[in-house]
Structure prediction request, 334 residues.
Amino acid sequence: MRAIEFLGGERLELVERPDPTPGPGDLLIAPTAVGICGTDVEIFEGSLVYFREGWAKYPIVPGHEWVGEVVDVGADVTGFAPGDQVTGETPLGCGRCDRCRAGAYHLCALRTETGILNRDGAMASRMVFPAAAAHPAPGIPGRAAALVEPASVALNGVRRGGVRERSVLVVGAGTIGLLAAQCARAEGAAAVAVTDTRADRMALASTLGLRAHDASAGEDAYDVVLLCAGGAGALGFALRAVRPGGRVVILGLSGKPEVPVDMDSAVVRDLTVHGVLGSPHVWPDAIELVRSGKVATEPLVSATYRLDEAREALERLTEPGSLKVLIEPGMLSQ
Prediction:
């Protein structure tokens, strides 16, 4: 098998490894499409918070947004068969601690995270993955199914926001922002608006039927603000845009140890501020939203690359006009 390894210092290599076999409870998967996101860039650069905390270490095989085909199943696996299209979760808990038993496996102190923290990801021609964390994704085109993971993160944030019959502003029209806006619409928000400083992203939002934020609306205009951008300016704007007594849900990472914020304003306006990690307990619903077309993912894909073009794919992600870039691991140059 072949895999991309991030080695630190913005170094990566295409390496060959022995073909893996699935152990008990595992699936052997051939990834067919893998999304690259800002977290992967942070791993590549070394700015990810997990490095600052001393949790993550190199080498890392990235790839936490993925879809693939089951090649083989290990002992004690039921519900999956070779040929099935599947995707899978990112945080995987130990299953034994208090947090896992309470359902908060994404907060397990011993967790691994696919392609991020002590577990190889899908930027490879083969991947062993626990069947317990895998989800069938039939009837969805591969490039669309590769974005089920960010769609599930978006859906988790939307549900934490309690958006039904509420006015919602999404700050940041990147992948998570555009998915969150669509999820909010599907979850019954009374109105959904999107804002971003990039005209190309706002144009894409328009093609998805999403309304642009009206700057004349002023401050205190929304019941719920979903913050899907990481800069200090975006956070300050989100806190000003929400109504007194409203809710701000933070899905975006800043990549910085500190971000200035006016806490006094949050206090005197009685705001609720949620940080949201991962996507526990929403995967079947996210898959159905993508399958039904209520959340469109494929229009967010800007380009696809072969496995041996991973560096070019990372560079493309940061270019103007790009949004989501995919690696198709089954494709290699001859």
